[in-house]
Amino acid sequence: MTMRAAITTLQAMRRALPGLGASYGPRLSNAAASTALLFMAAIGAVSASHDRAYAQAQTGLEQIVKAPDIKSSEPMLLQADELIYENGNSRVTAKGNVEVYYGDYTLLAERIVYNRSTNTLAAEGNVRMKDPDGAVITADQLTLTDDFRDGFVDALKLVTKDDTRIVAQSASREAGNVTVFEKGMFTPCKVCKENPDKPPTWRIRAGKITHKRDQAKLTFNDAAFDFFGVPVLWLPYFQTADPTVKRKSGFLIPSYSHSNELGNTVQVPYYFALSDTYDFTFAPMWTENAGTLLLGDWRQRTANGGYNLELAGVFDNVNDLTSPAFGDDFRGSIKTKGRFALDPFYSWGWDVLLETDETFRRYYNLDSRLRTDRVSQIYLEGLRGRNYFSTRFYNTQSLLFTDEEFSEAVVYPIIDYDYIVDTPVVGGELSFNSNTMVFSSADGTDSNRFIVEANWRRQLTDGIGQVFTPFGRLRGDVYSLDNPGVLELGGTEDISNAELNSSLASNRDNGTIWRGNAVAGLEYRYPFVTTTGQITHTIEPIGQIIARPDAIGDQQEIPNEDALSLVFDDTILFDIDKFSGYDRIETGTRANVGFGYTAQLMNGTYARAVVGQSYQIAGDNEFDNTFYQSSGLATSNSDYVTGVYIQAVQGFSFTGQARFDQQTFDMVRTDLGSTLNYGPVQARVNYAKVPGTVEPSDITPNLTNVVNADESEEILFAGALAITNEWWLLGNLRYDIAGDQTITDGLGLRYQDDCFKIDVTYQRSFIRDQDIEPDERFLFKFALKYLGEYEASTSGLGLLGNGDESAFAND
Questions:
Q1: What pLDDT is stored for residue 403 in this prediction?
Q2: Phi (first) and psi of residue 679, to 5 degrees
Q3: Per the domain annotation, does 63 fall within a domain?
Q4: Which residues contact 509 (CB under 8 A, 6 or more apart)?
Q5: How far apart are CA 368 and CA 351, in angstroms?
Q6: CB neighbour class for 470 (10 Å; exposed up to 12, middle 13-18, buried from 19)
């Protein structure tokens, strides 16, 4: 219902009331008006001019010119202390606490005047308009023409639902989609509750702010940027997309850096918003010493998925003898990732990275310099009911100069299929697993395998709470080998040792190898539960006996591609087979025993401790060979393994795992991890001590670059301390204790509030590999809400450009 329609209704009411003359403006008492003028009137149609009337009641910058979407059948409610109808002047005035409710819109004012001769509607005195999204417009005066398309707002203040504010001396709307704010101020920062008059963190003051709704642009003329109330930058002209725009073509914030390797670097990205479903970012990076790097990132969404394609390349003659690209004129990479759904259960995708040499992306700081390998894959997988299916094609590539050829391999493909029978079999759960792999290593070792496995288990609980779990397994393997070469060496857990593979050749015949195994076992648990005060205690002894054939032949005939990364700890103590992959399986009879304790508090905090040991009772111990000598399982009685886990609802967690020598009780391996998020402190600490491997001289003197005989010990720290609600002190450290050297470290300071963030950090890296040299950098980075980010880094000693080594908490 338009205001004119409402006034027409009021005129009809006036004629119906006795004693009201027409020669002067009729006047009702406050009491009578409060009673008689609270009414609801509905009309069957509303003109298009009405839709435009509420253009200034919308949320945000675009909503000050957008018409409200209200059904024509919506009623209007009007209430005022006094109503004056001036027939001679063709004017109707509502005065005193005027309230208008229309749909989900509310208009409040001290006075509303409708002039029929000029076709204008004016609200005066403490005007407030609220829209359905919660945006509030306040003004001293609001004037609209009769068709409600164009209007004028005097002393405007607009606050959107997300607290974006525009304050202007005056504002006008032109051509239906352009709003001009005279002597205005724009800021997305919230008002300080303690001191509302305090300047916002940042704002833009301008002689004129123009908002073009159809182009979603904000233009500032004679603009000044204020930070904490202090002018820091003046621009005669400045243009940006309005806050409602998520995607719009244009230049992005540039970045600057400096390093010894690249020299001065400037990057200016340009974003192409090509459609609602795909876009492209072109971000050339000019470097002083290493050419101009061309970067492009294509992203696309489809009805059933999406993908991105990142291209990088530089034409520069590499003269560094340490670089793997020495003498080449071009270096580049292709990085792409995608995933698409075939149906609600199955999907396929890829994650592929190809580059001309091992250090290109690290040298230009496109990737972290801590990266040591590349793993690309194409996959198809699905989970439906009790069925799981996965097919994956892998390509692995080492990035380190010291790695051997066997570190690079192709898996085409590896197929896993798992199925759980949906009905009990002999009262227990029956499942089937299968694995197929076709593998080729760069050193010429090829192997194909097919494995099928059936597992059965049933859990039984007696009347006093004892839990018996009998289980069984049947497995059959077939391997097809071409130039198999395996000599298993000393090393167990480290990534570097996991790379050790079939390039260490022995003279074995090509052919087919069959292997099978049968397992029968029983697990016993007897949990005791008691409560003391607010703590529930659970004490649980655990025992397990596993029987298998004493021997299944010489497993060294089979290349070991996936069982190299064995870490014996409490998490695998009760595994039926403790090897990490399919290529090695346990034989003989083994017993695993342990003891667990859990304390659970009423508030959710819990602590759990586990201790146990494994025993080879009979048959061949497959861990008793050179490669697994330091695994803790090579002797009949294994090392002791322990685990402590603490989770506190206050934000503290701790995980501690340790392995102790079964004879001397010396601590052999330790892995500790903790996180803290309490009050002003956020921290993460990880510590690892890993035993050394068999000395290379015990095997062959030519393997010093492959087998690491030294014990490794390392600590990682990352933390943040809140100095105030906005200021944070940041720090990180990664330190090699055994080598007595720092790997990376850094210190930083951060300011962050609801609309502004700034980081000032100093970061050092001591990583060296081919043309990657130790470096340090000073990084200055800030972000403005709605205006993007700017980043600059510089150093007198040679910085990383835009690297990714930072490990600050909260990043």
A1: 65
A2: 60, -130
A3: yes
A4: none
A5: 18
A6: middle
